[in-house]
Amino acid sequence: MDKYAKRKFILGAIFVFIAIVFIIRLFTIQVIDSSYKQYATKNVLRKVINYPARGLIYDRNGELLVYNKAAYDLLVTPREVSTFDTTQLCSILKIEQADLMAELKKAKKYSRYKPSVIVKQLSTEMYAMLQEKLYKYPGFFVQTRTLREYAHPIASHMLGYVGEVNQSQINKDSYYSQGDYIGVTGIERTYEKELRGHKGVNYFLVDVHNRLKGTYNDEKNDSAAVLGNNLTTTIDSKLQSYCELLMKNKRGAVVAIEPKTGEILCFYSGPDYNANLLVGRERSKNYQLLLNDTLKPLTNRAISAAYSPGSTFKTLNALIALEEGTITENTAVSCFGKASSPIRCTHNHETPITLVGGIRESCNPFFWNTFKTIINKYPTSEEGYKKWREHILSFGLGQTLGTEFYGESKGNIPEASYYDRYFGKRRWNALTVRSLSIGQGEIIVTPLQMANMAAVIANRGYYIDPHIVKAIEDPDQSSRKLSFEKKVSMIHPEHFTKVIEGMQEVVDQTNTRYTAHVEGIDICGKTGTIQNSHGSDHSAFIAFAPKDDPQIAIAAYVENGVWGARYAAPIASLMIEMYLNDSITAPNRKALEKKMIEANLLNPNQPK
Fold first, then answer.
1. CA angle at residue 565 from 344 to 365, to 5 degrees?
2. pLDDT one-digit tens code per residue, 569-595
3. What's the pLDDT tens digit per position in 56-96?
4. How many domains, in total, are found in the chain?
5. Domain-embedded: residue 295
6. How far apart are the C-alpha atoms of 541 and 569, rounded to whole Å?
7. Domain that holds residue 117
8. Contact 416/386 with Cβ under 8 angstroms?
9. Residues 226 and 374 both lie in one domain
């Protein structure tokens, strides 16, 4: 056989082999494999996403805060749509025909082959009516999902809310597709991956009349949804509810922390909003109303407001001076003469005054002179200031306190370079920045940082990162406790004794006694009155209790509250009493409680 005959034989064999392959494949498709039967019978394969229920959220005592309720979305696959009665469908869905046609147009633009949500969040009643008529509307089908429901209208800024994903979020995470929901704020956002679970999918055969004909391929291609993880928070829902009652009709924030653990017991920003308003078909309208509200209820003041700490900050200046050795507990400062200039005393008290009395009376000259000794200890004001700032940062100020708080502000403890730019290199000193000695000037803190500052003092020098979630529970009910970092300040424990003594005297031996003293509880606190050029001054108070076994540290900030003892101190002390004693019983305390509840600082005509 010559070489040409061999080539002819080889080519023929190749063609025969290819023909056999095609015959076997066609036989498999048409006879053996039943998955293509749907096309022969004019059925349609429909992919339906099985959405998991988001994880539940509980308070520290097992009280349910957030759960799920059933909802239904109407979807459409444009290529499967034929002529239908738009009037009847719109009547069932309670929407305008123009809106329906606009959504259909949008769905076609997105994809003629992929399903799109056309009407969201149908009620159970609407779904029941639609289900009976759905066979009349080829291409339309219903998909079940869950919506959030809030058991109590509390802690909206802490819990956050859920909203529909945007295109940017879809591009960042392939898990999401058009119409999905995602945590937008609060712990719904921070713990989104833990809460969302994992989607499943079911495949169904649907005939030309939009009727289900059964599952596809004996459900072999289906996958089950995996429920989201449950969260146990650190919040005490009873204390949270009580705080919100006391802060009604007031602007400001209150944060309470368990000092030994860093667990946040109460987290409030006011005015707040009912998170249930941001669920369901009215969500968009309600969101716009909240967004346009001049009281800014969507703003989380607890972590983002720019507040001065005022006189609460004097405690830190005292601690730093003790650590630096520039004062002792017996150092005395006069309220008259050179020592009282340029920051004069605003209280009538004995003089000269020492550390404990200085804290008790909130004596401006004492703390101005204390601050000056710290700065002047070092060769240059810049070096002294940098050391002072280093101490302040070790209390958690001037930085974010954790990864749980989306949108948390760092506040502001200015760097020395700021003053170099503003005044010029070596052209500023303690006198130039004297307002820092009394918690004013460029210092900016958040209520969360103020509460953490109180926790550091309560712990005599350390704090655990403040946090809201303490445990995550998997669907198989195995619980995983979270751990958080312990951070130690630059102040040695022995220096806290006299500062704490002064804080106790603030509550027991000054006018603050009438609004903050609780019989049987040793409360240590410090008031602050913060200057406000736009109206009444703001009211601030930090505290912890009991003195020798602190179980709660708290910061309250009430805008336009006139002075520290007027609103912030009574609100914080009532919360301490409620948390430790479980009730308010003394007649004078009940009267104070009533006064706080009824006070309306949002009404410009009501006396402050």
1. 15
2. 999 999 999 999 999 999 999 999 999
3. 999 999 999 999 988 888 888 888 888 888 888 888 888 88
4. 2
5. no
6. 5
7. 45-233
8. yes
9. no
